[in-house]
User: Fold this.
Amino acid sequence: MKPGLDAVVVGSGMGGLAAAAALAHRGRRVLVLERHSQLGGLTQTFRRGDYTFAPGVHYIGGVGDAPGPDGQFGRLLRRFAGEELRFASVGSPYDIVRIPGYEFPIEAPLAAYRARLEAEFPEDGAVIRRYFAACAEAERAGAALFGAAALPAPLAAAVRWLNAGRMRRVLEPTTAEMVCCARDPRLAAVLTSRWADYGLPPERAPFAVHALVTGSYYAGAYYPVGGPGKFAQAFARSIRADGGELRTDSRVAEIRVERGRAAGVRLENGESIDAATVVSAMGAYNTVSALPDGVAPEWRESLSRFDTGLSYIALYVGFRGDIRARGATAANVWVHESEDIGRVWERPADEDAPSIFVSFPSLKDAAHEDPLRHTAEIVAACRWDPFAAWSGSSPGRRPEEYEATKAWIAERLLAQFKRHFPGLAALVDFHELSTPLSQASYVGADRGAMYGIEMSAARLRSGALRTRTPVPGLYLAGQDAASMGVQGAFMGGLMAAAAIEPRLWLEMGR
Assistant:
């Protein structure tokens, strides 16, 4: 690229790509640096023989044809990534909740979901009405909360003050507390069972987070046609078309600070890159770790008070045969082994997962053509601690003890899956397990976290996680700047770009 970059974007996950595409769209000269050999962060895919898997995208909302907020994500994607991104509806139901002896389908649109709840739990009609009324208030509070994250500090404080009462009503109660009055415990289980979508069990999750994430699917759930790898392809094409550049295998060792202002980055190979602005989409912890010693000490201290979110184990399964004929559908299945649905997998080598999330991406992808080659992704939230002892190793060089433990967990998790889907057991042709170490190694996630810093009430009340950092010229993008998941990371990137180029706010509102 020509000298005099306007911005260096560190990380090519959804947040980094969104920030880069929006800035390039406004004529800024942008360079994206990705540590991995492949663009996309958790939207990337990988192939094993005849099977393609996606580690981080199982379904998304907000990309249908609905007007207003229910379709805003899709409109923004088309504006900054082009028209080639297409999405297919997962259908209805898009989620199925299973607890021992009971199954409930989560349908779209919202009216259908609510009607089924009221028909299934007639004695809890008042609880259901209060629940959805609180969800609506949480949506309004969330808009103010995340919007404030991109504003200058005085304006952000004013927005928080004006919405203090509303925020308190949806941040203080946990998800479990909001449904504790249900007469039928199955209703409470159904309403809170999908907590792995935001990485906090019901007893700890602020209700606002639960409401915002589950509410994003009210108008339906979708899957990218051709797989999640299409995100990086579309964004990369858009960024290059607007004069930007993207580089892989470019690990940033330091965010350079000169005269108190971000001045560019230094790569691990020693190369120094000057830029007027640095946008970090590699997570808040990685960002402060890359700053020179002594820079922004109060910010470092504030971030140290937050907990890293839960990590996960994923089992990738390939099938040879027609899985639809054996009972599989495009809907995700949330399997809970007991009514204690908030249990986290504490000892993966010694016990079955308390809960598993099962997705069949080959049945969601409208471009999947092979009727006899299908895939499943089985995900279980877990702690980092059981794997911490091996965190100093790298892929391909793990100790034998780790490899043996990983193989044992894989076989145990596969057996658990087969018990719940016996019709598919005979069709299993391939399986491979990833642990929190995979997440840490390939996308740089602190402690292998699914969604970055834990989305606790303390985090949401704090002003420490904002797109504008205490270091002038340094902006934070991605999940830690806004909210979790694909849509949250995208909005975090877009808000960072808008903080740099204010004219983008007008485009975001269209």
Observations:
- The longest strand covers residues 311-320.
